Amino acid sequence: MHSWKRNLALPVTLVAIALGFLISVQAQTQRNVSAAEQISADRMTQMKSVLSNSQAQNTKLQKDHSDLLGKLDAARKNVGTDPQLLAQLEQLQMVEGTQAVEGPGIQISIDDRDKKVLFPLRTDDLSTIINTLKFAGAEAVSINGQRIVSSTAIVLSGSTILVNEEPIKRVDGIPYELSVIGNQDTLFDYFSKLEAPNLKLDNKTVRIVRKKLRIPSYKGIYPFKNAVPLIVP
């Protein structure tokens, strides 16, 4: 009897040790999961807070921009209608993107919803495409109605791409539509040879059309809190 107990003692002890180890690992794993969930929740809260503050600031800046445009119109009336001065002002507005424009160019539609697509279109993909188009001489660019200007940021918030701090809207069922004004042949050649092949390689649907386009103005403003005009003596 005692011999049987002695023979059983070692296996029982090992089982108890193993069971204790598994319980310990499970508890630690649960703590790690809880910690990870808390970190994720904290990051999401911070992201929502940043987005909310950015949108509130953008609303204020848009109001300030509207007020400044009113003052600009009043100043125009005061200084008269000097054709050369007005032409220079209009040119500057076109350069900074605060003037809606029209002209010949290309319209690019990119659809990444096919099940065969391995990687959806990313923010750096859009940035690369825009840089290629600018290098090809693009004079004005918009993504789903958002004008691309020097201060434009293309970022990811959760699963939503923000352009100019605004979620880009879908256009007629096409996830991404870029309107580009410039030399049609040059733009078409650069995009079709440098960007389209990589997109199609990942089974994304790409369509390029030559057409006359209208591109809206940039709705935000350029806030300068630290930079001031350089006065050259």
Can you tell me the CATH architecture of the largest domain? 2-Layer Sandwich
N-end to C-end Cα span: 108 Å
Q: Which band does the percent of strand residues land in?
A: 15-25%
CATH first level of the largest domain: Alpha Beta
CATH superfamily of the largest domain: Protein of unknown function DUF881
Q: Enumerate the spans where pLDDT stays under 50 for 5 or more consecutive residues.
A: 4-10
> Structural class of the secondary structure composition?
alpha+beta
Task: Bin the helical content.
Answer: 40-55%
Number of domains: 2
Q: Major sheet, described briefly?
A: 5 strands, antiparallel
- Count of alpha/pi helices: 4
Strand order of the largest sheet: 3-2-7-1-8
**Radius of gyration using CA atoms only:** 29 Å
Total strands: the figure is 8
| Shape category | globular
Mean pLDDT: 77
Order of helices and strands: HHEHEEEEEEHE
Give a quick rundown of the structure.
With 233 residues, this protein is α+β, with helices and mostly antiparallel strands. The protein is built from four helices and eight strands, in the order H-H-E-H-E-E-E-E-E-E-H-E.
For this entry, give a set of tags:
5-stranded antiparallel beta sheet, alpha+beta, 233 residues, 53% helix
Set out the fold topology.
Blueprint lengths: L1 H78 L3 H14 L4 E11 L11 H13 L4 E4 L2 E2 L6 E4 L2 E4 L2 E2 L8 E6 L2 H18 L3 E11 L18
Antiparallel strand pairs: 1-7, 1-8, 2-3, 2-7, 4-5, 5-6
Helix pairs in contact: 3-4
